[in-house]
Amino acid sequence: MPVAKVIEVVSSSSKSFDDAIQQGLAETATSLKGISGLEVVNWTADVENDKIVTYKVTMHIAFKVER
Predict the structure, then answer these.
(1) Residue 67 — pLDDT band, cuts 50, 70, 90?
(2) In this structure, what is the dihedral angle of CA atoms 29, 42, 6, 12, given to the nearest 10 degrees?
(3) How far apart are CA 3 and CA 15, in angstroms?
(4) pTM for the whole structure
């Protein structure tokens, strides 16, 4: 029976929420193998002068546990 582990990752971007997700996944993939899925559990943003300046996401990333 396959087993997966889930970690929490927080990532940010000055471009978009999608970019924050992509950057967080890409950075996590440099140290984890076998990523099988992710869930965005929180979306926040920093605002200055009525404009979003930083998009932030909190994700749960699942990966296979190797024997």
Answers:
(1) confident
(2) 20
(3) 35
(4) 0.89
Q: How confident is the model at residue 39 (pLDDT cuts 50, 70, 90)?
A: very high
What domains lie within the chain, and their CATH numbers? 4-64 (3.30.1660.10)
The amino acid at 25:
L
The single-letter code of the amino acid at 22 is Q
Q: How far apart are CA 43 and CA 23, in angstroms?
A: 15
Q: What are the distances in angstroms from CA 2 to CA 20, 49, 65, 66? A: 29, 49, 8, 9
Instruction: Return all residues near 63 (Cβ < 8 A) that are at least 6 apart.
Output: 4, 5, 7, 32, 33, 34, 35, 36
